[in-house]
Amino acid sequence: MTDTDVLGHLRAYKTQNYLLGPVSVWHRVPVVRRALVFILLFVGLVGELRVVLTKRSLKLRTFPGHISLPGGKADTGLELPWQVSRREMSEEIGLSEDNDYLESNYGFTIEHINEMPCYLLRTILAVRPCIGFMKFKENGRNREELLERLKLRVNPGESSSIFSCPLRDFLYPAVEETAQEALERTHYLIKWAGIPWHLRSYTFPQLNIKEAAWLQGFKDISASEEECSADEDAKLAQTPPPTPRKKQKKDLSSWGQLGSRVDEETNTKIYDVWGLTANILHDLAEVVYLSHSVNGRQLGEEELIHSLWKHGQLKGKVRSEEEAALISLTPSDKVSFSDVMPRSEFLRLKRLYKM
């Protein structure tokens, strides 16, 4: 079975919404708390499924320099997730949201494959991932010639670089197989304010001969690595890691390194895909390649987001005191989700996310 064949698993995937209902919690929270990311999949040089990623601009107030999926916030309550995500991707990397234009000029359209459940962003936003696939009318030489004309552009106010990775590499640790391109893959089960949370990291070489031709040649328009490292401690303070479990032997306090950096051991320039982006892509890889393993299991944080909303959080643009405490949480803080919801509900969520 080829990588494109397994897209059938993704098309058939039924998103598990909050309370097993028909609608995602994304439609429940206020518009100012709704965010989207676009997962653009395409077929690589040897038939592998790849995903497009960006490096966030160092000028951004939140998560500067981190590796992320193209995306942004909704403008109105009338916009559908797919519309928002296509628009934001177009603004961020210059890939048109008009399928007719893409087909007539480059021979492909972006097929709406599916959507994932909502995830809770560190800044207390509900993030809905939308998944699209670059679908070509023809293969072979004509396809490559058309793609040579495709010129993406990064929006310097939002992104500083574009690249891609094999989706299958994000299966770890669900499957321990040799990575196609990842240099290092790590995983820790920790806690964020008392709720189990997966801390994953996947590093990839910046100079990659297996990169798609239409994504090559994107020089990082941000500051140099040396300039970035000087500001790293200040940036870490903006996005502190969740609280590690006491039984963890490894010191996780340094997590949050810039997504584009130099590996300390090999001196190789790498991209570090970690945090929420890594969790979304890991879950997506499980759906695509191990569809049976996600049956009955909670992906995303629909239930947690709904519970926070139900008990007085995620209500407006201004963060509550409780939300501010969750955002600025450090390993020494004794902040818990149980502070903003009944203990019985907190314990239910703990059991749910241990699965």
UniProtKB/TrEMBL annotation:
<feature type="transmembrane region" description="Helical">
    <location>
        <begin position="35"/>
        <end position="53"/>
    </location>
</feature>
<keyword id="KW-0812">Transmembrane</keyword>
<dbReference type="InterPro" id="IPR000086">
    <property type="entry name" value="NUDIX_hydrolase_dom"/>
</dbReference>
<protein>
    <recommendedName>
        <fullName>Nudix hydrolase domain-containing protein</fullName>
    </recommendedName>
</protein>
<feature type="region of interest" description="Disordered">
    <location>
        <begin position="229"/>
        <end position="258"/>
    </location>
</feature>
<dbReference type="InterPro" id="IPR015797">
    <property type="entry name" value="NUDIX_hydrolase-like_dom_sf"/>
</dbReference>
<dbReference type="InterPro" id="IPR045121">
    <property type="entry name" value="CoAse"/>
</dbReference>
<keyword id="KW-1133">Transmembrane helix</keyword>
<dbReference type="GO" id="GO:0005777">
    <property type="term" value="C:peroxisome"/>
</dbReference>
<feature type="domain" description="Nudix hydrolase">
    <location>
        <begin position="32"/>
        <end position="187"/>
    </location>
</feature>
<keyword id="KW-0464">Manganese</keyword>
<dbReference type="GO" id="GO:0046872">
    <property type="term" value="F:metal ion binding"/>
</dbReference>
<keyword id="KW-0378">Hydrolase</keyword>
<keyword id="KW-0472">Membrane</keyword>
<dbReference type="GO" id="GO:0006281">
    <property type="term" value="P:DNA repair"/>
</dbReference>
<dbReference type="GO" id="GO:0015938">
    <property type="term" value="P:coenzyme A catabolic process"/>
</dbReference>
<dbReference type="GO" id="GO:0010945">
    <property type="term" value="F:coenzyme A diphosphatase activity"/>
</dbReference>
<dbReference type="Pfam" id="PF00293">
    <property type="entry name" value="NUDIX"/>
</dbReference>
<keyword id="KW-0479">Metal-binding</keyword>
<keyword id="KW-0460">Magnesium</keyword>
<dbReference type="GO" id="GO:0008413">
    <property type="term" value="F:8-oxo-7,8-dihydroguanosine triphosphate pyrophosphatase activity"/>
</dbReference>
